Amino acid sequence: MKKALFAVALFLTCIALSQNAMAKAAKSSDLGLSRLGVDAGLVDPEAASSTLGFGAFADWGNLSPDVRLSSQLGYWSKSEGDFGAEASVRDVSIGARAKYMFHVKSKVQPYAGAGLGLHFFHTKVSFPDVDMGGGFIVPGFTVEDSATKLGFDLGGGVSKPLSPKTDLFADLWYTLADIDQFSMKVGVSFLLSR
Fold this sequence. Notes:
The chain has about 190 residues and is mainly beta. It has one domain (about 1-25, about 40-190): Porin (Beta Barrel), CATH 2.40.160.20. It is built from one helix and ten strands. Strands 1-2-3-4-5-8-9-10 form an eight-stranded antiparallel beta barrel. It has a two-stranded antiparallel sheet with strand order 6-7. Mean pLDDT is about 85; it is low at about 20-25.
């Protein structure tokens, strides 16, 4: 499944880049910080129940007339407990995405994209003291682990202007990483004066 998703993402990226390479030379790239935004929504990590995720991002302008470059920072955390033990996992990610903006005659702008990111995973499991009776107590302990993994993002969404300087967006992203995750988020972005 992971290989198939990667192949589809690579294929779509190649199509988008080749189409843009053939675009008329009259339209040039306009790289530079153009928008800042925040998002929040549902994150569904592999082998755990859904949780709330937050993020912030920066739009760095157009690589070509139809492809925009952005960077993002994301965070989610999930804790579960049973029989006194508690397990938690969190992910802090930083990455970059290229988004292909489809040509439409509507104010609602659909896009699809792909990207790479670094995921800083931290897991922790805590076990409490156990009273075995007769004054014998097994002491509790905690086990922690951290890992930094490269992730591949594939997704898309839609954006709509709310005002001349503010856009509302909703998007879906699937991330292939050490802990695969699916996210559905909404957010706002703000145009910076240049």
